[in-house]
Design a protein that fits this description.
CATH topology of the largest domain: Rossmann fold
Largest sheet: 8 strands, mixed
Number of strands: 19
Strand content: 15-25%
CATH superfamily of the largest domain: CoaB-like
Protein name: Coenzyme A biosynthesis bifunctional protein CoaBC
Shape: globular
Keywords: Decarboxylase, Flavoprotein, FMN, Ligase, Lyase, Magnesium, Metal-binding, Multifunctional enzyme
Number of helices: 13
Cofactor: FMN; Mg(2+)
Helix content: 25-40%
Organism: Tamaricihabitans halophyticus
Distance between the termini: 29 Å
Number of domains: 2
Family: In the N-terminal section; belongs to the HFCD (homo-oligomeric flavin containing Cys decarboxylase) superfamily. In the C-terminal section; belongs to the PPC synthetase family.
Strand order of the largest sheet: 12-11-8-13-16-17-18-19
Length: 415
Amino acid sequence: MSQEAEPPGARRRVVLGVGGGIAAYKACEVLRGLTEAGHEVRVVPTEAALRFVGEATFAALSGQPVHTGVFQDVDEVPHVRLGQQADLVLVVPATADLLAKAAHGMADDLLTNTLLTARCPVLMSPAMHTEMWEHPATQANVATLRERGTVVTEPAAGRLTGADSGKGRLADPGEIVDLARLLLASPQALPWDMRGLRVVVSAGGTREPLDPVRWLGNRSSGKQGYALARVAAQRGAEVTLVAAHTVALSEPAGVRVVQAGTAQELREAMRQAAAEADVVVMAAAVADFRPTGSAAYKIKKTEREPDPIALTRNPDVLAELVADRQPGQTMVGFAAETGDAEGNILEYARAKLHRKGCDLLVVNAVGEGKAFETEDNDGWLLAADGTETRIPFGAKSQLAVAVWNAVLASRSRQS
């Protein structure tokens, strides 16, 4: 897996393997997401997968021929060429059977042959019943694949087939597309190197009520915090996500989510979660002020000018968490900044890093079309030792990778 990072806008070759499980229909959403991103996708289903979704559907959505066996188009040697030429092999859903075959090097159809010949990143997204996922044989196969460098994502928890619920549900298709695009851009982005770390991430913007209808808030969508939680979970961490108001985001697979509406609620949730954490990341946009009181009834619109709104300062959640930090705990803050006549973004950020006392501070320039409510981000990563690193513009998941790499490097230096 020594490929160069994906240039912006590059069209890449993706093999989308589809296993024979009920979640096979969700592979169509993944296929659509990758083709709309401009990539060439060749679907390679198993015979069992075609009992759930027909060949014509995959061919129509991909614009590519669909085969399951090694004896079609033999002159093109597809069982070797597909894996050799791919920039990414993605398996959705990865059934217990496919995980077992991949772990043991079995090759009895086109997909398993492709997995053996692939020299690019391989991403497998499992889906199966909880008992199958938790079985020691499946867990051993997953561990073997991860040791070899295959990215096996954590499944989600939720409704399965029939009346069953539990861990084993396929991750949200949008999340799978995001992880696939991350690996196309950065093939080494998801090593299994955060296992054993307990991580707490806050995300979104707090809402401070004025009355039962109105509130004071900010433009944070929560996308950056969710990306941080998603990447950490897929690198093996035990993740708790404290989510304030977000814009219709699906819960990341393998992540415990705690909802918090106001700054006071987020403060309490973070204090509880941080008590047992190794790493705390405050990516939420916490309102600096809140109304001194909230009206019990909707404030009516009248002919006279409205009364002024009295505000009081909210607690500084990050500063409190730093002050109460446990030994060995790593603290990461986020700062949304704009420059003005008194100073530039980095000058304000350096002062904030010193004032907050955290180990790392991620600084984003904000404004119209920047940071808030966008899919992409950039900024600077400031460390307590004076190191400053520019984070190039890219998907928010790429910025998340940069943050976690810096966290691990910082913890390594301290140990």
